[in-house]
Design brief:
It contains 6 helices and 7 strands, in the order ββαβαβαβααβαβ. It is an alpha+beta fold.
């Protein structure tokens, strides 16, 4: 499968040390299969950090990753499980997970405001299942036609082949 990374520079070798934390699926190298999304991210990075938008293609073979024993988590849409994962990755600096690769819907920048709204609405119960289902239903109305692939470990990055 062909995956794309949008940035302000061509990525020859992904480096986790250069990746930001507190993103949807935590620190990792994020890609998508959709060119439009990759280009949007490239434009965003270039406008923030300078340079020109660059979309770098990689090949990824999911079955090989499984054969190599990588731990992959896939969220098949908005759910309570997806919600708590997003909320904890974005707000809890002590939260970590042990997945090599995480796949699922993009929450995007709007979700930070929605997390605050959610916490205010539910108070200390904001991580209860009912509250998380409400959060997932609420953010799903914004529609995420984009799926992201987050490569979280050095072992996972080895599965990417620069095209």
């Amino acid at each position: 499968m062909r995956l794309l990374h949008g940035s302000n520079v061509e990525i020859v070798t992904p480096n986790l040390k250069k990746c930001q934390s507190r993103n949807d699926f935590g620190r990792g190298f994020y890609l998508t299969s959709q060119w439009q999304r990759a280009y949007l991210m490239a434009k965003r990075r270039a406008s923030r950090d300078g340079g020109e938008p660059v979309v770098t293609p990689f090949l990824f073979y999911p079955t090989k990753a499984q054969e190599h024993g990588l731990k992959v988590k896939e969220f098949k849409g908005f759910s309570a499980e997806w919600s708590i994962f997003i909320i904890l990755n974005r707000t809890d600096e002590t939260f970590t997970h042990d997945y090599d690769i995480v796949i699922g819907p993009v929450a995007d920048a709007f979700v930070d405001k929605e997390i605050e709204r959610h916490k205010q609405k539910y108070g200390p119960r904001y991580l209860d299942t009912e509250a998380l289902l409400d959060f997932a239903e609420h953010v799903s109305q914004f529609g995420s036609k984009y799926v992201q692939y987050c490569f979280c470990t050095k072992e996972a990055l080895k599965e990417l082949i620069k095209e």
